[in-house]
Every structure is written in structure tokens, then in C-alpha cells.
Amino acid sequence: MTTPSAERITSPFGYRSTALEVISGHDLTGKTVLITGASSGLGVETARAFTHAGATVVLPVRDQGRGEESLRAIATTENVDKVVLRSLDLASLSSVRAFTEQFLSDFSTLDILINNAAVMATPQTETSDGFEMQFGTNHLGHFALFTGIAPALLSAETSRVVALSSIGHRRSPVVFEDIMFENRPYEKWSSYGQSKTACSLFAVGVNELYGSKGITANAVHPGGIITGLQQYLPREEQIAMGWFTEEGVINERFKTVEQGASTSTWAAVGVELEGRGGHYLEDCAQALPVSKESPMGGVEDYAIDPELAMTLWEVSSELIAK
Q1: Taking residues 87-96, what's their average pLDDT?
Q2: In Å, what is the CA distance from 214 to each residue of 101, 117, 134, 313?
Q3: Which amino acids are annotated catalytic?
Q4: Alpha-carbon span 130 to 286, nearest angstrom
Q5: Are strands 56-61 and 32-35 parallel, antiparallel or unpaired?
Q6: Separation of alpha carbons 137 and 135, rounded Å
Q7: Residue among 133, 94, 103 at smallest CA distance from 32
Q8: What is the residue range of 104's domain?
Q9: pLDDT reading at 310 higher than 70
Q10: To the nearest 5 percent, what fractions of the chain are helix, strand and coil?
Q11: Does any domain span residue 234?
Q12: How far apart are CA 251 and CA 30, in angstroms?
């Protein structure tokens, strides 16, 4: 499933590159970019980069107050009119539908969609539609968002979709026999892993179905970054995993948020990826297969398998139609 290293897609950027470095030299004036989860962390930095490049940036947020804070953080006097806040709760299909209807009435085209929002390691809870929270938010909410605004993506001359996955995908494939943990014990990391595998397979599915129509899609592992994503993890657990010390010193392998936003930005604008999709990217390059030599990176074959992607697409279509 993975591309041989001799054919691997790479770029001039790497592990410590920032989003602003990646987007430097790109003029996105006249382009429209939609970034979910832009009320904090990676989303804010990703939005900052695209605003800096002149794009109109649409920020769908669940919390309008935090969205306003994000707007003030990223907007300058030159581009404040190009940042658009909208209301969206990915854990509610009715909210997603309302958002997509409003979006299509306001924008005729969409050039870049970045599915950045996520929850991680949550307690066992459900979305308003009864889906397991991590799968429902991280995958199904974004799946419904894409299918709703696909007409705008298709209206662009070419468009790109970026789906944020994670090294956490290695914790679990999509367990089609029991996606919602109805017949197996809930385990927060298996749930997160499954949802992030689904995000990667979603990108493969978009590319399979829409690549010939001008939409390319890739999945991205942004790297380890301390953000609000860790809100459900006790401090003691994070220390035990080596993320930071008792004194609060962050592990040196972690990226800053500026660095963490770089691969998403490259996936959206990198010339190396023109017309190329269905890949899993990390550190501004195509990921290699998982191996013992690279314990902190790589992609599992089950996360980029076209057949599994199509199975997931069918299952997801049925779930959001209920």
C-alpha cells in the first residue's frame, strides 16, 4: 500500500519547519480556505498562515467566544475582513447541515478544506446523534461536512482536502464489527486510534472518488504538540508517558504549535503534491511504512488501504443518513 522510498514525496521543509515558512511565497488572494477547530492550538496557527498569504479564511467554531479570541489573534489590520467566523458543532449532524447550507449560500467555491478539529482520549460519551464521541466527532462530523460542501470544492478549478490524522492511528484500525464500542469494553486510546485511522482512510476515499474530478486529499500527522487536545488527560498520565517532567518541562521531541501546523499547510499548498493524493504525510513529507527503525513515525497499511477506505465510506454514508 505504501509508496517505495525511492518514489517518496518530499519537500524542502521538515520536522522543525513552521507554517509561515511553508506558506512563504504563496499568494492565495482570491482563494477560500475552511479550517475546522480554529479556536485554539494548531487551528489558530494554520489560520494565521493562510490569512498571511491573503486567503479568505472561514473558521467554523463551536464556541463563539473562543472564536472571537482566535480572530483577534490571527487578524491584522490588512486582512481582518478576510476572516469569517461561523458556528459549527461537529458532534451534531444538524449543526453540520446548517453550516453547510449557510456556507453554500455564501461561497460559490472552496479551494482548501482542512479538517483540523479533534477530541482525544475522552471518557465514553456520545454525540447528539448517538455516535461514540471520538469517532463521531473526529471522523463522522468531518465526513458530513465534506459531503455537504463538496459542490463548492468541485466548483473550484482544483481543490485540496487535508484530514488531520495522528500517530495514534497505530493504536487501532477501524473495527467495523463494533465501531461504537457497543459489544467491547471502551478504551479511550483504542477509540482515538480508530478515529484517526478513519480520518486517514477518509482522505484516501476522497481521493478515490473525487481525484479525477479535481479534488485531491491527503492525511496528515502534525507531530506531538502540547495543545488543548490533552484536556481529558490527567497531568500524571502525561508525565508517565514522558510528555513533560514533574517541573513542567516539555519533552524536546515535541513541536511548537507553529511547527505542528507546517505539514497541514504543506499538504494544502505544496507544489510537490499537485494532483497527488491518498497519502499519509508527516514532517512535510510522505510517511514511510511503520518500522522498528522509526518508532515515532510511519503509517500502518490499514490506514491507507483503498478497499478499507471504500468500506468506511459506505458505512459512514449510511450512518449520517439515519
Answers
A1: 96
A2: 22, 24, 30, 19
A3: 165, 192, 196
A4: 35
A5: parallel
A6: 6
A7: 103
A8: 5-226+257-321
A9: yes
A10: 45, 15, 40
A11: no
A12: 40
